[in-house]
Amino acid sequence: MRDPGELWNLRVRSVDRARKAARRAEPEGLHDLRVALRRVSATAEALGAKRVSRDARDLVQSLSEDRQIQVDRQLLARIGQLGYLSPDAATALAARWEKLSERGVRRIVRAADGKTLRALLKDMDRLARRKAADAVERLERARVKAEATLENSLEGKDDDALHRYRIAVKKARYLAEDLAALGVRRFTSSIEREKELQETLGRWNDLRMFCRRLAESRDEAEGRGAVLLAAELERLLTLLEPTIGAVRRAAVEASKAPEVVPIERKRAVRRVGRAGPALSGR
Predict the structure, then answer these.
(1) Angstrom distance (rounded) from CA 16 to CA 112
(2) Residue 249, CA distances (Å) to 151, 157, 162, 212, 217 in order
(3) Which of 15, 19, 55 is nearest to 36 (CA)?
(4) How far apart (Å, rounded) are the C-alpha atoms in residues 253 and 255?
(5) Per-residue pLDDT for 278 more than 90?
(6) Residue 247: closest CA among 279, 275, 211, 214
């Protein structure tokens, strides 16, 4: 595929397919929709379609909380299976989070059927029919710029910096895949590394946000006098601290340029980075 218009057609098909899956409340429908929209935003920004990029990004952000509750519920189920919470505590927490999820389902359906998303699909369809002789050049410039933001290690950086880096990795990877789809292969060697880095940062972020919700649930339990539940959640938060630290260190190590990280250290990173999947939805 070398026609830039076909790239937009691919984006339209991906968003529409994910939109329908989200509307049917399929397990990964919301996740797939947000990924498809992120790709649209990255492509549109590079190609100068600012409104399309903004609308796609706004839709992603509007669905962030709903996606997070899905991830949190998956992690809670694993926590319960591993015996880190008593059955009573796990059941109580699951019931409260299920109510949040039910409200979210309605928001997801509204977004999937909403005017903004339908207008976005129409805008992309129009872009697919336009001549864009400089599309590859624009995508290459955007990719080089995105790549430059990934050159520095995350060593010593705070959580906000890690979060911004995670978003930048996604953008760089999506642009490289756009270019590969258009026949430009010089960035493809970075795609696999960026995918692995994205997944490691994703595990860290999932656990970090999960613990934030646990802390909110602990405070809520304390406020309504559920002392035993609050104490159990506090113990769980303490138990999870080393796991989050390990996954965070793996992400920092993985952010270092491949030529700088010795082979032995890279292998260790992979081992530590996979210490979290038992507690991760990825």
Answers:
(1) 9
(2) 17, 11, 11, 19, 27
(3) 15
(4) 5
(5) no
(6) 275
User: What residue type is assigned to position 105 of the chain?
Assistant: V
- 213, 199, 278, 197: which is closest to 243 by C-alpha? 278
Q: Spell out the residues 6+ positions from residue 146 whose beta carbon is closer than 8 angstroms to its own.
A: 168, 171, 172, 175
How far is Cα 270 from Cα 250, in angstroms, rounded to an integer? 7
Buried b (16+ CB within 10 A) or exposed e, 44-66: bbbbebeebbebbbebbebbeeb
The token pair that represents 219 in the structure block? 């405070």
In this predicted structure, which of 18-27, 149-158, 233-242 has the lowest mean pLDDT?
149-158
Question: What pLDDT, on the 0 to 100 scale, is given for residue 1?
Answer: 55
Token pair of 8 as six digits: 């937009």
Percentage of the chain exceeding pLDDT 70 = 90
Give the pair of three-digit tokens for residue 201: 């940062």
* Residues 215/87/80/223 CA torsion (nearest 10 deg): -10
Give the chain's count of helices (H) and strands (E): 11, 0
Contacts of 58 (CB under 8 A, 6+ apart): 116
- For the stretch 120-143, pLDDT in tens is 999 999 999 988 789 999 999 999
